[in-house]
Amino acid sequence: MTESVPESVTAPVPESVTAPALEMRGITKSYPGVVANNGIDLQVRPGEIHALLGENGAGKSTLMNILYGLATPDSGEILLDGTPVAIKGPSDAIARGISMVHQHFMLVPVLSVAENILLGAETMANPIFLDREEAHRRIVELGTRFGFDIDPDVKVGSLSVGWQQRVEILKALYRQARILVLDEPTAVLTPQETKEIFAVLRRLADEGHSIIFISHKLYEVLEIADRITVIRRGKVVGSRIPSETDEDDLAALMVGRNVQLVVDRGESHPGEPALIVSDLRVADDRGHEVVNGMSFEVRKGEILGVAGVAGNGQEELVEALTGLRRPTSGAVSLTGHDVTGSGPRELQRRGMSFVPGDRHRFGLVLSFPLADNLVLTQYDEAPFTRGFLRNDDAIAEWAKRAIAEYDIRTPSATVPASTLSGGNQQKAIVAREFSRKLSALVLDQPTRGLDVGSIEFIHRQVIAKRDEGAAILLVSAELDEVLELSDRIAVVYRGEIVALVDGPTAEREEIGLLMAAGRRSIPPVETEAGAGAGGSAVPG
Amino acid sequence: MRLLRRIWALAAVPTVSILLALLLGSLLIIASSLATEKALNPLLPLVAYESLLQGATGLSFIDVTGGVISFAPSINPEQAGRALTNTLAAAAPLVLTGLAVGVGFKAGLFNIGGTGQVLVGGFVAGLVGGMVAQQPVPIAVTIAILAGALGGAIYGFIPGALKAFTGAHEVVSTIMLNSLASFVIVGLVNDIFKIVGPSFARTADVGNAAMPIVFGRNGNLGIFIVLALVGLTYVLIYRTPLGFEIRTVGANPSAARYAGMSPRRLIVLTMSLCGMFAGLAGAFEILSLGYYPAVFGTTIGFGGITVALLGRAHPVGILLAALLLGAMRAGAPSMQITAKIPIEIIDVIQGLILLFLAAEAVIRRLMRGRAAPVTPGELGTVSKSYGETTV
């Protein structure tokens, strides 16, 4: 740093110096029954990573859809480099240098990287044929410039999720995007992949690209953003610079009240074992055994957390326990009854509740009204069925109660579940599954993709169920969630339980090591205490 | 008001499709006047549709004489009674084949096997009807109708079971079963069940099992049975737990499994139910005819697909759609006499309706903002079921 540059690196650049690359002024957009955006102002400068933070349904998606030309604002204007523009549609947005990387990738898995990138922006050698060589050259060049070497001929389907995301970013860069919108880019990434993608984003920003980064994860936003704009219920409620704020402050801004990021779990009082699993083996769809003899028990009134890197057999374990997949061998007993190989219906009758990890695939029928979804697993029981007929009054009444008790934000119980935000969809599932008379509860990624307010709510409900005496199995890719809630933690690695440790005293680093390598590392000489000296750990 | 809006959201695309089909059909009629009258007659479509309406309902709104159109509403009560009875009689089997497709849509199944199920149902009803021909009418009719329903149900059960247990796609298997049914039945009638006497191969007379006429010249018992079945189907699909299961399997088979339902059982059950509807349609046709002819060419099986799509797979919609197509069939002869237009134009218009329904996205763009998107669209269900893995 020299004297001639007075500003510090983190201070916001005065507006007179740099015109914003993008400015949205007074954007208002109403949908029937809801004002999604209410006079939103947003400025993004060249070379800035600007985080957009807000609860599910706060209006972030609407704002970005307006920017991308997918929705027309009722009022307000959009300025690019100080010039007012009317964005007519996604192709117009792309032509103006605005690109969007969606949470769910828009890639064709059977096509190569180059073919995916060229789709819709074909580089032509002549009016009939593609100029593949030129396209390859540009893709490789772009990759090198931003720090990722990619083979343009590799099929996208064979790439990891992290690399697929880079292809999405390359796609945007190939279209000469100056403003990149990333919608929850880290939701599907491992911590390592997240770190790598952040390096890429930083490099893009250094080259003068503007990045709008949408996320729920507060610590990530604090790590990557230059500036943070918080939206609540369609309005901008605050703007922050990471160095002048923290997670609690951001969470409070987002939710509008103080949020307990870590719920008080209190004392647990475990009773007798309710769910006993012995030497369970489960095969995946291709017939490979991915659960290799797991044995554990979950006691009444306790939460057993399952920690592990995704893909170490958790999914198949959960499916086997909930009757969606038949185990190849081993035994499962629920409150003293052998339920090995029982289907979902029988397990439900015995008091098993299940919050599935993929709420769109298993948890909900998106085209059905919310009320129908709230009885999806109880539709044939009293009082929802009377004689041969559905009892719509009872269903409506229960829906009304569930919406109130579980704070499900929806215009009514008759709207399709697809119209609810992710957090409210999850609350609906939780309402349905937690309100049954239950002895065991299997939670698979119960808060994936949710905002802090919803997470807090669901965590409180889980603790409440534990205190009522339910045996709870919690499977989560979020290590923090497992650490916060679990009374005991089972670490899985390659289909086996490699350690069972006490929850409240568990060390984050130790669990992380076990997850990554399947064993505690031999303590290096320079560490003061051996990592394995916790004492509480009993290998499974 | 909200109900009206919801109905419009559902009915908008079918309504526009019908109007577009009639419009395009009128161009064809004008073109056809070149061949028949040796001159372009731009008024011919009006004459044609007018006589179609009159033939189907006995109602008349306009008078076209000497190139002048005048508004002259009139009704001929005697003709109206006959015409409406014809319309109802033509619509009744179409309602059944429409339900045979529409109920399948609800479970995410595309039953193309209506034709085969109609043939089997009709054949079984004809055979059994011949056997009970001497029994008292109520017994004979009941047995013959139930036999036809059972025959259709079994012929629907086969593709259902194939799908549930081997994953064979119902579109493929039902198309093959259609051919199988038509050829095998022709052979059976020609070689085994043919009676001596008539100049063409056919089964024995159904005698007392013939469809009883309740009113008019051809207002038969089937019309009332169909009306009752529409109500029952509505209750089944929307008001019972079983209907909820069927709809859940159709909308999201994975969620159905998660919720403890058995998609396999439901697929077999729904296909059997669909087959039963189509089988009943065949039974009604054959029992009205009085015997099963070796060559029984029927289009009601495929007509059911148009009816189900036009009726949005809703029992009431199917009823209305079948009435429309039935009216067109009933009014076509009168159109042929008055306007000299070949009766086949009806099939052309029906085909055009189907085409516009299939081009739902195009229609929606034409009337953007008028109707809320319906999810999942019936054709969406169909196309989805192609990509779906088996349960």
Assembly level: heterodimer
Helix amount of chain A? 25-40%
Here the CATH topology of the largest domain in chain A equals Rossmann fold
Strand order of the largest sheet of chain B: 1-2
Please indicate the percent range of residues of chain B in DSSP E strands (runs of 2 or more): 5-15%
- Secondary structure: number of strands of chain A: 22
Compute the average pLDDT of chain B.
Answer: 88
Global shape of chain B:
globular
Q: Alpha-carbon distance between the termini of chain A?
A: 55 Å
CATH architecture of the domain at 89-324 and 374-387 in chain B: Orthogonal Bundle
Any low-confidence stretches of chain B, pLDDT <50, length ≥5?
A: 369-391
Total beta strands of chain B: 4
Please report the distance between the alpha carbons of the first and last residues of chain B. Answer: 41 Å
Task: Name the beta content range of chain A.
Answer: 15-25%
CATH architectural category of the largest domain in chain A: 3-Layer(aba) Sandwich
Tell me the radius of gyration of chain B.
Answer: 22 Å
Provide the spatial order of strands within the biggest beta sheet of chain A. 6-7-8-3-9-10
- Summing up helix and strand content along with how strands pair, one would put the structural category of chain A as alpha/beta
Average pLDDT figure of chain A: 86
